[in-house]
Design brief:
Helix content of chain A: 55-70%
CATH class of chain A: Mainly Alpha
CATH superfamily of chain A: Winged helix-like DNA-binding domain superfamily/Winged helix DNA-binding domain
Largest sheet of chain A: 2 strands, antiparallel
CATH architecture of chain A: Orthogonal Bundle
Oligomer: homodimer
CATH topology of chain A: Arc Repressor Mutant, subunit A
Order of helices and strands of chain A: HHHHEEHH
Number of strands of chain A: 2
Structural class of chain A: mainly alpha
Number of domains of chain A: 1
DNA sequence: ATGAAAATATCGACCCCTAAAGTATCAAAA
DNA sequence: TTTTGATACTTTAGGGGTCGATATTTTCAT
């Protein structure tokens, strides 16, 4: 029901060979995993709710900030550029899921908020989304998931050091 | 030198709160890590070699298959759609890094290959690329990287089961 | 052989994303 | 006050990605 024209099977990790540095293989495996899961989520969101992942992500941010968020805040939290947020917000406004309110404090800024319909709609999607994730990770036991969580924290720290320079 | 208009700091993981299912937080953390690293690689490739990640990936596939690959093979291995491969290949052909040869066996198909210049160019970039990865993972010790590698194998298996249905 | 079904690749419409430049507002110093 | 500089957002140009439709060739059952 997902994945049709996207082959999705053969694996980006194909790129890795024994001659490659172990770290490179590690990275390619991680990338393959992430893409696999992300593509799956993406196509289920589209198939079952007719929404894109970026739109879902934006709504997800708003749901946790009922007071509204400025465009710049959204940009930071979603780790995308401002111009990108403009476009996604436009779409969601057009669908009636989100509104741009003028900020009372700063006439340059908006406060973006979920509409009541947006909130309702998001709750339904978020429930399904969480179930899908559960399912995708269900092949790992509790201990494994805990370990992975910890290791990713270490990786994030490691990468952030390099990245921040 | 990287990351300018992209905030990149505040973290996608912001989306996760204590009230979320642990699996969801795990997934969001993984996504944040991957994006962090991928964006870093992406901008360094651009800054230092004026090439995009997808183009680099395609060349990477070809480098390991000197006999050439059909468009469909590339599509499978890169986990993207055929239409997408058409576009990226066009670009690389335009830059003289790659050629489309008619397949002798099947008149519908091409064999895409690296040109000599493409091969030369790729080796340089691949060396740098590998160094960057090493650097990004350098904050983890050998044991941690090994563990992570194993856990990702488990995750891949788990996710593939769901994904394949 | 032939004719239908499957496979290979391209195209067009549309969304996501970035970098760079532009507009408007704010804040603070001269 | 005026200017200067930073902030908040939009716009534009261009690459990346999907899907669905199309054209061509191959395959295979009849």
């Amino acid at each position: 029901m997902s994945k049709k024209s996207v082959p999705a099977a053969s694996d980006t990790e194909t790129r890795a060979t024994s001659e490659h540095a172990p770290d490179l293989r590690l990275w390619l495996r991680m990338l393959a995993c992430t893409n696999l899961i992300e593509n799956h989520i993406r196509s289920r969101l589209r198939a079952e709710f007719d929404i894109t992942l970026p739109r879902f992500d934006l709504m997800s941010q708003l749901e946790r900030s009922p007071q509204g968020l400025k465009m710049g805040e959204l940009s930071k939290r979603m780790m995308v550029t401002g111009g990108n947020v403009t476009g996604i917000t436009d779409q969601l406004v057009g669908e009636g899921l989100v509104i741009r309110e003028d900020s009372p404090k700063d006439r340059r800024a908006y406060l973006v908020k979920l509409t009541p319909e947006g909130r309702r709609s998001f709750r339904k999607m978020a429930d399904a989304h969480e179930k899908w994730i559960l399912e995708l990770f269900s092949g790992m036991d509790e201990a494994q998931r805990g370990q992975l969580y910890g290791l990713l924290a270490a990786l994030k720290t490691s990468a952030s050091r390099t990245t921040a320079k």
